[in-house]
Structure formats: structure tokens, C-alpha cells
């Protein structure tokens, strides 16, 4: 295979780096995947193929004649983006029924299985005439994009596109296919929610890759176990290899780092200062912070319940502490997400009513996507809570500590991807144990200066050890090794 460092890469994901409004204005896509891929695409020559997600995107795609066009990266450099327009009804079935919630809920253990999901024609059709079609549209774009390139490298991303690799493999057996999954890989029984045919197709789709990557060793182990349990495939757990149809699929963990320099640069913007001034004017003795997409996996409700409990058990902290929650509304076309937002607002009202006073609101809820406002809060928190029930990486757990200026304490759920790296210096909580979280809040707020310093320093050290360039290089090194025919070795 040709040297990948010189070769153009093709990246494929559902959400692209930017979204176009119908008036042509641009906004940046949100979520961990976009953050990761923006780094990747601006580090090397790459064409990023993504779904056109609204009318503005579709207009932009048509204006480009369905071809790739250049976009400037906010962190410097530029890359080519190709937006793929799918049938509107098919896309809605793909995104709002099958990918979210069906797959997302399975992979985050969110189904309340005695009640949901019911698998009926609605769900099966969402798979057959939604998920499959959108995957096919993106696969077609990939095949067109790599036409003429010999032994191209295609990097597919996330749970929206499990079928793309097989669709590409059928037409380009010479392509090197790499898939990174940004969310947890749940244990085998959770997948039994899906009808066997659908499940098998999804697994065969992703197993058409040469390499499958995850954020943690634990997701890698789960994936290998699933291949054994659900498909009865031959698996080498030590080497992280699945054998299927005379091929080997390497399964690897590449924890995603953040770009500390770029994140700190954002935190120094003038607009951040304005938010800081305001925040410092209203600041009580202590600030507790959470920053998340308003997603069910993030466990927002238990976070507020724990704060409620903490205030009840430690009345000496009343009027001295504020819990600021910046939540970006997400997937509001999916009913489960809309309801979740309503429940969040209702609980905040209850807690504020129970403990608040005429000039103190215990929880300050900000339902908006404003990176600069979040940065201002990152700089000044005393406690940062990331209590997700189960979650892929949780980049916020890495962003907070490198921007924070007060040696703030991180409270971190043991089921977040970031915990595998940061657990040692965080206060670890079981995300379901509300009392444990209330205790952790108290412990964080009463911790000695020395311990805070020690923990904060430890977190910063780990977070800055690797950067997104390393993440990409680690993956490309494996691509080169495998393409050159190297044997898999024990992962240790
Ligand atoms: C997570 C997923 C991404 C997704 C992001 C935002 O980080 O892993 O694939 O893009 O959430 O969700 P959205 O549905 O808005 O793209």
C-alpha cells in the first residue's frame, strides 16, 4: 500500500463540521465527533463526507453540484467537505428513529426494557428504508470520491454508519477501511433487543472494516465478546482480532485527547472575558458546574437530585453555592429528548423552589450552545461534575481541568470513557448512587488546598500528555502496519 501520510484521506460521518443556514450563514457542528474530526481534517489533507442535515446544507450541497467544497477550519487550515443529500423521509427514519434513539439507547443502556422498545414495522421500516438508504447514499459518495485512487484509506465514524464499510468493501475490495466508534460498545445481551437479522447485518457491516477503534479498552473488550457471543466468530482477545470470512479485523482502543492549546486559546477570547465579569459579579463562595449536551446518557436529573440532597444535609452551604448547568439542547425532534428537557426544567424549578431565597437561585440552568459562555464558567468552577450513566469519552471532563484556574475538583462517573485515564485524580462516583454524589460534592467543597492542587495537577498532566495529532498518528500507524501485512501482537 502507498504511504498513507502522502495519501488523501476520506472521512465519513453523519454530522459534518459545519451546518449551513438557509441564508448561507455557517455554524460549527457540535459534539465530540466533530471536535475530533476537525482536528484530524485540519492536520492532514482530507475530504470529509457528511450528511446534509437541513435545508441550508442541502442548498449548499446543490450549489457545489454534489461535489466537495473547501471549508476553513476554526483552528486554522482548511479541508474539503462533501455534503450528501438523502431523501427527507428516509433521513428522518434513519436519524430520529433508528440511530437515535434505537442504537444510541442500546449502546448507552438507556432502554427501560420492561416498557420499551417495541419492535414493530415502524422500527423495522426505519432500518430498512431509513438507516440502510442513508448508509447507501454515503457509501455511494465514498466510492465516487475514491474513484481512481489506488488502495485508498477511508475512515468511517460512529454508530450512524455501521453498514457503510460493507457497502464500500463490495465495490472497492482494495480500500483500507477503518471505523472509529465514538460511543460505548455495550455488552452482548443489550444487543438482543434488535431482531437477529438486523443485528447480524449491522455486525457484518462493521466487520467489513480492517480496523475498528474505540475510546477505551473496556469498549474494545465488549466488542470482541459480542462478536463471540452474538455471531459465534473466532476471536483472539489478547491480540484484539476477530476472524471473519478469511479476513482479520483488528479491534483497538485509541482514547481521544483534546487540543489543550486550542481549547485554552478559546478560553482567552474577549467575549469569554465579558461572561467572566458577569459571572464573578454574581459569584457566591462556591461554583459547581456541568456542561453537556442535553442527552439522557448524561444523567442530569440525578445530578440535580444529589445537589438537592446535599443542600438538605448541609444547610451551612445554603446561599454560598451555585450549581450552574449549561446544557445544549440536542436531537429535539426525537420525543425522548424533548421529554427529557421538560423533566430537567421541572426538577430545576422544584429544587430552586425548595431551597432558593429571594436573592439566591441554587441552580442556574442555561439551555444553550455557547462555547464562550461555557469557557468562562470552566475558568472559575470549584467543582466540575461529569456523572454520565454510560458515555463514550466525555471530552468535557478533559476540557474543564485545563481551562480552570482554581484547582477545581472533578467529580467523574466511573462509567465515562474519560474515567479510564482520569480516574486516579478525580473523585469517582457511581452515577446511580445519588447519596454518593451528594457526599462527593461535600468532599470536594471541603477538600484541603493541597489535595485540590495535587489532583488538579495530576489531571492536567494526563490531559496534556497526548494531543489529537497523536490520536491520528496512532491510528494511521496501525493502518500502515496492517496494510503492510504485519501480524497482530498481544496488546498487553
Ligand atoms: C455524540 C456522537 C456523535 C454526534 C454527537 C452530537 O458525540 O458520538 O456522533 O455527532 O453526539 O449528536 P448529534 O445527533 O447532534 O450529531
Tags for this model:
six-stranded parallel β-sheet; 492 residues; single chain; alpha/beta; globular; Rossmann fold; 17 helices; binds 6-O-phosphono-alpha-D-glucopyranose
Show the helix and strand layout.
Layout: E1 9-13, E2 18-20, E3 26-28, H1 32-43, E4 46-51, H2 55-63, E5 69-72, E6 78-84, H3 88-107, H4 121-145, E7 153-157, H5 164-171, E8 176-180, H6 196-206, E9 211-214, H7 217-231, E10 234-236, E11 241-244, E12 247-253, H8 260-267, H9 270-282, E13 286-293, H10 300-313, E14 321-328, H11 335-355, E15 363-366, H12 371-380, E16 383-386, H13 396-403, E17 409-413, H14 419-422, E18 427-429, H15 434-445, H16 449-463, H17 468-483
Parallel strand pairs: 1-4, 1-7, 4-6, 7-8, 8-9, 9-12, 13-14, 13-16, 14-15, 16-17, 17-18
Antiparallel strand pairs: 2-3, 5-6, 10-11, 11-12
Helix pairs in contact: 3-4, 4-5, 9-12, 10-11, 10-15
Bound molecules: 6-O-phosphono-alpha-D-glucopyranose.
Protein name: Alphaalpha-trehalose-phosphate synthase [UDP-forming]
InterPro entries: Glyco_trans_20 (IPR001830)
EC number: 2.4.1.15
CATH H level, superfamily name of the largest domain: Glycogen Phosphorylase B
Secondary-structure class = alpha/beta
What is the CATH class of the largest domain? Alpha Beta
Largest sheet: 10 strands, mixed
The tally of strands reads 18
Amino acid at each position: 500500500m502507498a504511504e498513507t501520510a502522502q495519501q488523501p484521506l476520506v472521512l465519513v460521518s453523519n454530522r459534518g463540521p459545519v451546518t449551513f443556514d438557509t441564508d448561507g450563514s455557517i455554524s460549527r457542528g457540535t459534539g465530540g465527533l466533530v471536535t475530533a474530526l476537525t482536528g484530524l481534517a485540519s492536520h492532514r489533507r482530507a475530504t470529509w463526507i457528511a450528511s446534509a442535515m437541513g435545508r441550508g446544507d442541502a442548498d449548499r450541497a446543490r450549489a457545489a453540484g454534489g461535489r466537495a467544497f473547501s471549508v476553513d477550519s476554526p483552528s486554522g487550515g482548511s479541508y474539503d467537505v462533501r455534503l450528501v443529500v438523502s431523501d427527507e423521509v428516509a433521513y428522518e427514519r434513519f436519524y430520529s428513529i433508528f440511530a437515535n434513539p434505537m442504537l444510541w439507547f442500546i449502546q448507552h443502556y438507556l432502554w427501560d426494557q420492561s416498557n420499551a422498545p417495541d419492535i414493530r414495522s415502524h422500527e423495522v421500516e426505519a432500518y430498512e428504508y431509513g438507516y440502510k438508504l442513508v448508509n447507501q447514499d454515503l457509501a455511494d459518495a465514498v466510492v465516487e470520491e475514491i474513484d481512481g485512487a489506488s488502495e485508498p484509506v477511508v475512515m468511517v465514524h460512529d454508530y450512524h454508519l455501521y453498514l457503510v464499510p460493507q457497502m464500500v468493501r463490495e465495490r472497492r475490495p482494495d480500500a483500507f477501511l477503518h471505523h472509529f466508534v465514538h460511543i460505548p460498545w455495550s455488552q452482548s445481551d443489550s444487543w438482543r433487543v434488535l431482531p437477529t437479522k438486523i443485528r447480524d447485518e449491522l455486525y457484518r457491516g462493521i466487520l467489513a472494516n480492517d480496523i475498528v477503534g474505540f475510546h477505551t479498552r473496556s469498549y474494545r473488550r465488549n466488542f470482541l465478546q459480542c462478536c463471540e457471543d452474538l455471531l459465534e466468530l473466532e476471536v483472539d482477545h489478547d491480540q484484539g482480532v476477530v476472524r471473519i470470512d478469511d479476513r482479520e479485523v483488528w479491534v483497538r482502543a485509541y482514547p481521544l485527547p483534546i487540543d489543550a492549546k486550542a481549547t485554552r486559546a478559546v478560553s482567552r477570547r474577549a467575549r469569554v472575558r465579558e461572561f467572566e465579569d458577569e459571572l464573578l459579579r454574581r459569584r457566591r463562595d462556591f461554583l459547581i458546574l456541568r456542561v453537556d449536551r442535553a442527552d439522557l446518557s448524561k444523567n442530569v436529573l440525578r445530578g440535580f437530585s444529589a445537589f438537592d440532597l446535599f443542600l438538605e444535609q448541609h444547610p451551612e452551604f445554603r446561599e454560598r453555592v451555585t450549581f450552574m448547568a449549561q446544557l445544549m439542547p440536542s436531537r429535539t425532534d426525537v420525543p425522548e429528548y424533548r421529554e427529557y428537557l421538560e423533566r430537567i426544567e421541572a426538577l430545576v424549578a422544584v429544587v430552586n423552589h425548595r431551597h432558593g431565597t429571594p436573592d439566591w437561585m441554587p441552580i442556574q440552568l442555561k439551555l444553550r450552545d455557547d462555547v464562550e459562555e461555557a469557557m468562562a464558567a470552566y475558568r472559575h468552577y470549584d467543582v466540575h461534575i461529569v456523572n454520565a450513566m454510560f458515555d463514550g469519552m466525555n471530552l468535557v471532563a478533559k476540557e474543564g481541568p485545563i481551562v480552570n484556574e482554581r484547582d477545581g475538583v472533578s467529580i467523574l462517573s466511573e462509567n465515562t470513557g474519560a474515567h479510564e485515564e482520569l480516574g486516579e485524580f478525580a473523585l469517582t462516583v457511581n452515577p446511580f448512587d445519588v447519596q454518593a454524589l451528594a457526599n462527593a460534592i461535600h468532599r470536594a467543597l471541603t477538600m484541603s488546598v493541597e489535595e485540590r492542587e495535587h489532583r488538579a495537577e495530576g489531571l492536567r498532566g494526563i490531559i496534556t500528555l497526548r494531543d489529537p495529532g497523536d490520536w491520528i498518528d496512532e491510528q494511521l500507524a496501525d493502518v500502515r502496519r496492517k496494510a503492510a501485512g504485519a501480524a497482530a501482537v498481544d496488546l498487553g
